[in-house]
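Hi V.,

Quick status before I head out on leave. The structure for the redesign project is tokenized and pasted below; the design run finished overnight.
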């Protein structure tokens, strides 16, 4: 949100006379091969990366949560079918599945968000099912069933609210995963267009200059690492806090 006010220039403004300058007073993090300010691109890249991660996480929860809740609430053959399908999807590495989805949808940041979100959905569905089964065995759920509440009503009024704590905590841990894998897809050239200020794409741009201009890749990589680490630490803290409730 503050990128436009904190950045000295636009992320796409090039000046070849300023190419590959090391970090200094004019360019705090140096410039890249086209003379673009790395600090500016890092700030704008954070917006792109975080936006992609949040959209992907919304897709993960939007797909995985209903599947897991339905499977855990209704059990029976529906649970078996849905979970065998999730197991089959989990047999594929998440990044490989995301690459296959991007290949079907075509390159682009939206395709990366959809692909990473769908690739993370089976794991979230598994956790949602486990949480639903745990709540389903509680006495108040049995009491609601005894007075004639339908399974759908039980799922919405009793199981979902009481499973929210664990589901929110796991969603926070999934955010780090989608950020990292989204950046990996952009690094491989499957996401944003060339030259776009995105951390994974910036890593790819600087890999040919690691000896002469290591700052081009170092700072985006450091930003991505610290962001994922911060998200994971926040998720752990959130999980501990919710567990006390």
């Amino acid at each position: 949100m503050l990128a436009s006010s904190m950045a000295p220039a636009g992320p796409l403004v090039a000046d070849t006379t300023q190419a590959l300058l090391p970090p200094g007073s004019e360019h705090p993090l140096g410039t890249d091969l086209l003379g673009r300010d790395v600090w500016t691109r890092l700030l704008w890249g954070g917006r792109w990366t975080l936006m992609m991660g949040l959209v992907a996480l919304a897709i993960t929860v939007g797909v995985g949560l209903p599947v897991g809740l339905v499977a855990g609430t209704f059990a029976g053959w529906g649970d078996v079918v849905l979970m065998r399908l999730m197991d089959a999807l989990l047999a594929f590495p998440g990044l490989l599945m995301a690459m296959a989805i991007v290949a079907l949808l075509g390159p682009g940041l939206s395709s990366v968000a959809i692909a990473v979100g769908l690739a993370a959905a089976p794991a979230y569905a598994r956790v949602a099912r486990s949480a639903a089964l745990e709540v389903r065995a509680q006495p108040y759920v049995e009491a609601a069933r005894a007075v004639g509440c339908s399974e759908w009503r039980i799922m919405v009024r009793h199981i979902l609210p009481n499973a929210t704590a664990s589901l929110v905590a796991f969603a926070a841990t999934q955010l780090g995963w989608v950020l990292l894998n989204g950046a990996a897809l952009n690094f491989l050239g499957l996401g944003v267009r060339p030259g776009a200020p995105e951390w994974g794409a910036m890593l790819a741009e600087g890999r040919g200059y690691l000896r002469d201009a290591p700052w081009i890749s170092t700072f985006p990589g450091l930003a991505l690492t610290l962001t994922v680490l911060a998200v994971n630490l926040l998720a752990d803290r959130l999980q501990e806090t919710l567990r006390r409730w």
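Above is the designed sequence. The CA atoms of residues 30 and 215 lie 7 Å apart.

G. will cover questions while I'm gone.

Best,
W.
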